[in-house]
Amino acid sequence: MKKIVAVMLTALMSLSLLAGCGSSENKALVVGTNAEFPPFEYVGDDGQPDGFDIALIKEIGKRMGMEVQIENMDFNALVAAVGNKIDIAIAGMTVDEERKQSVDFSDNYYEALQYVIVMKDSEIAAAADLENKTIGCQLGTTGMFTAEEINGADVKSYNKAVDAVNDLMNGRLDAVIIDKNPAQVFAGKFSDKVKALDGADFEFEPEYYAIACPKGSALVADINKALKEIKEDGTFDKLVNQYIE
Ligand code: GLN
Fold first, then answer.
1. Pocket lined around ligand 1, Cβ cut-off 6 Å
2. Is the pLDDT of residue 69 over 60?
3. What's the pTM value of the predicted model, to 2 decimals?
4. Are 98 and 214 part of one and the same domain?
5. Which residue range is the domain that position 83 belongs to?
């Protein structure tokens, strides 16, 4: 009799242990972002980071059974923080060769292009017009790398893109180079003063956003699986409609 009770107790204990291990529901996925890049990430009215990327990563986390915890930091600090301070980063981050030396990227989730913001009365309209100009951009971004390639350009970098737009309106810059969707948001916000010009007119090349993960991490496959489901079941398009279009 004693033996049967003991066996049953052992069985019960291992069952509850198994249940404990199987539930990853409360495991946190710490996600770094820079909430200065609308509509992908910004600080919402409630003071919390919101935007397309935030909604997307929460949906991915849900499907991975992980609770997403957002850490807001400088864009320029994100890549080095992946695998240390944060598990992964989502920040409208363009896949590029240099970043790939430090992180592994998920599948691409969005096509982007650099745009040019200028004052409404500016004559800048094509690539050659940007030569020898003072150009603002966000520090460590592909907009900055693009500006640095322009002949004779005096490049000024800011931690927040909106500060570059403010300096443009204050007359300290001739143009700001930044990704299309944020450019459209800022141009819309200050539409009495500035306009956003299509990067195709400047011969800029398309870029692709992806999620930065630690090198060699199993997270990449899990994230890609969730991302694929989200695209296939229409959730992705719903988020695009809600936040971008
Ligand atoms: N897509 C650009 C990059 O990856 C800008 C991203 C951002 O400013 N959040 O550099």
1. 34, 37, 75, 91-94, 112, 138, 141-142, 179
2. yes
3. 0.89
4. yes
5. 25-111+208-243
